[in-house]
Specification:
Largest sheet: 3 strands, antiparallel
Distance between the termini: 20 Å
Strand content: 5-15%
Order of helices and strands: HEHEEHHEEEEHEEHEEHHHHEEEHHHEEH
Strand order of the largest sheet: 3-6-7
Length: 440
């Protein structure tokens, strides 16, 4: 690909400024930050002062989500703009708010042993479920699931892996945080999501249920789950490397075996005639654009399934059914149901073409561009330029604290949600940097 250096530099600077806008340093109130006045109007009952003693990075600046989200942070690490000190602080906080060795029973849900929080409030108290900021026993239960989302357990592992690989501080694995060694915490987290022992594939029932992946937490997906399984595949490889550092050769081999088991079974369970991998095998048995692109990026697919997925990626882009201004839908336009909704079951009545029910997101853009570059480099170049140009046209630095990068967009009604959204730039930037051999 012939990267446009001007656009690349503009994306780097925009990403850097969004990460900075997402930081909330110790003792700082959200109301003191740009966009805080509007935040005060919309969320007056939230903990608003960072009392954790460390810098927290929330999902964005301005009026974005006022807590520390594990997945958004972990997904942003590859951008190279988060310091080792910041990573260490948030890794330790995540570990200390992880549930211990005993399940925690709530009013309507159960937090399994070693479950990881969905997000952590600015006062350091964990919230294990989407849809609420309550750290109390009233969190959890329908419509968001009786168990915490699966994805955060694997992102916790990614945080530890990144810190240890970047610092060389492998002895961190033996450190006791909250009476439990980090290595035990990581292994415990890995085994929280239910999975089939014969295939390694992650699954959930309808009741009780767990969210597959936080970026589809408003969508009901059941049976075997693609995205959580992809994250488990990556986490297994990361634990294998960490086990070797921890001089646990047998465990390293076991985790590599799990990764190979998953790699073998993903195309068998989630493959479709369209070339797209399916998001789930129960509710949500529909083409998953994000999951397909991410599987390609992870190098999980080979042979015919790989070629079929690349063909679906290319056709989707060229036909205009998957992307808009370099942003990506969760599922192709033609896959939407006939019931006025993109997915077959959502947790609430989300209008068609809004949020996770049909809007376009920048978070998976890098995965999609990477996959497209393997089959149609010209289209990948075009998509990269559309992505950057679209954000610069609505740049928050020029248009106020509700400008791009947006969380998601759609041309219907000029729909825009949550400006200054971090993973919209950090995740693609990390992918593009890896493609170029650059970071930070």
């Amino acid at each position: 690909m012939n990267w446009n250096s001007d656009r690349w530099n503009e994306l780097r600077e925009l990403t850097r400024e969004v990460v900075e806008a997402s930081r909330i340093r110790p003792g700082v109130s959200l109301y003191e930050l740009p966009g805080g006045v509007e935040l005060e109007k919309s969320r007056p009952t939230m903990p608003v002062v960072n009392t954790t003693g460390i810098t927290l990075i929330r999902p964005g600046g301005g009026t974005c989500y006022p807590s520390f989200w594990i997945r958004d942070f972990a997904m942003s690490l590859d951008c190279g703009m988060i310091s080792e000190e910041e990573l260490h602080g948030m890794l330790r906080l995540t570990a200390l708010t992880q549930n211990g060795r005993t399940p925690l029973k709530l009013d309507k849900g159960v937090v399994p042993a070693f479950a990881v929080a969905d997000h952590i409030n600015l006062d350091g108290r964990p919230v294990y479920y989407p849809g609420t900021y309550s750290p109390g026993p009233d969190q959890g239960g329908e419509p968001w699931g009786e168990f915490p989302p699966y994805c955060d357990h694997f992102y916790f592992i990614a945080m530890a892996y990144t810190f240890i690989k970047e610092t060389g501080a492998w002895s961190t694995l033996a450190e006791v945080w909250g009476e439990i060694p980090l290595w035990e915490r990581l292994e415990g987290a890995f085994h929280v999501p239910e999975s089939d022992c014969e295939t390694g594939i992650v699954f959930t029932s309808l009741a009780p249920r767990a969210v597959n992946f936080g970026f589809v937490d408003s969508i009901v997906q059941t049976g075997s789950l693609l995205f959580a399984t992809l994250l488990k595949y990556r986490a297994a490889g990361q634990l294998a490397e960490l086990a070797e550092l921890n001089v646990q050769v047998d465990k390293a081999a076991r985790y590599r075996g799990i990764a190979q088991q998953i790699k073998h079974h993903v195309p068998l369970l989630f493959g479709s005639d369209s070339g797209w991998l399916l998001a789930a095998t129960g509710y949500g048995k529909q083409p998953d654009i994000w999951g397909t692109a991410y599987a390609i990026y992870l190098g999980l697919l080979d042979g015919e399934p790989y070629e079929a997925a690349l063909s679906a990626i290319r056709h989707g882009y060229r036909s205009g059914t998957t992307c808009y201004k370099g942003n990506v839908r969760h599922l192709p336009l033609e896959a939407a149901t006939l019931m006025g909704t993109a997915w077959d079951k959502t947790v609430e009545d989300y209008p068609m073409n809004t949020y996770q029910n049909g809007a376009y997101w920048g978070t998976p853009t890098g995965w999609y561009v990477y996959a497209l570059s393997q089959t149609d480099p010209a289209a990948a170049q075009e998509m990269f330029e559309d992505y950057v140009d679209g954000m610069l046209a609505e740049d928050f630095r020029c248009n106020g604290w509700e400008g791009a990068p947006w969380e998601c967009i759609h041309p219907d009604g000029v729909y825009r949600q949550n400006g200054v959204y971090m993973t919209t730039v950090t995740v693609p930037y990390g992918v593009f940097g890896a493609m170029l051999g650059e970071s930070g």
